[in-house]
Write a structure and sequence with these properties.
By secondary structure, this protein is of the alpha+beta class. The protein contains three helices and five strands, in the order H-E-H-E-E-H-E-E. Strand 2 and strand 3 form a beta hairpin. It is elongated and about 70 Å long. One iron/sulfur cluster binds next to helix 3.
């Protein structure tokens, strides 16, 4: 029996991919790097108030936000509470960098 299972597994395609040469498209609801739609933001501050990681700062006067991705947990709350859909998530997940200052969305 074990040999049969081993032979079956041998005939199957591997589940792994040759990343980064070939990349799988993330799942439909995947939460990658945020996209901030400046034109929609009304500066209400709800995203900052609801961020449990305290990684969003809102400039209410200028209607701008700054998200620090190095402390973000990608929970999605900021997107969910935004009344004007100014925050969405992209498929971008390759965020490693040597410079922490690159890890922000504004
Ligand atoms: S995804 Fe979650 S942790 Fe990240 S900025 Fe939004 S609310 Fe904060
Ligand atoms: S919740 Fe939306 S509209 Fe309000 S400050 Fe954040 S991004 Fe702007």
């Amino acid at each position: 029996m074990i040999i049969i299972e081993a032979l079956k597994a041998f005939m199957k395609k591997p589940f792994t991919t040759k990343y980064p040469l070939s990349k799988k498209k993330p799942a439909k609801l995947f939460r990658g790097k945020h996209i901030f739609h400046k034109d929609k933001c009304i500066g209400c501050g709800l995203c900052e108030e609801n961020c449990h990681s305290n990684c969003i700062k809102v400039d209410k006067e200028k209607k701008r936000i700054k998200i620090r991705l190095d402390t973000c947990t990608f929970c999605g709350l900021c997107r969910d509470v935004c009344p004007v859909d100014a925050i969405e998530f992209s498929d971008e997940f390759e965020l490693s960098t040597k410079n922490k200052d690159d890890l922000k969305v504004e």
